């Protein structure tokens, strides 16, 4: 087996004395340098940390979302993308469905999963604390389709059932 310099993964590239991973490897994006130039939905402040334009991400988009106290977003969906929301601070209330007829709440440390094409709305359930979340999506490009939906008066609460640890005695 001949030792070729092309397959040297020790981090010591022999070109210009610089590893090929230096500027194309791990990237740290400071929280104070996020990009506010992303598709907007009324009522929320989205900022991009990781996307195709900024770091060349092909399969993921990540950023933050802040919703002011007592505020709610317009109804929207994210096309073919899957979304994950992680609640950092505050109390989140999600509504979803064709008439936003379902609702669930999430607290700091909770994860929220939103499948493709699901119409939904994020609500800050606290009257005095901002809701701060981290957002991850399954594509390097952001998609947000805003919807004109007439919400039902009283949404139905939905609790998550873990399909892996389901109670064997439950019907």
From TrEMBL:
Residues 1-22 are annotated as: Disordered. Residues 64-134 form the Cupin type-2 domain. PANTHER family: H2HPP ISOMERASE. This is Uncharacterized protein, RmlC-like cupin domain.
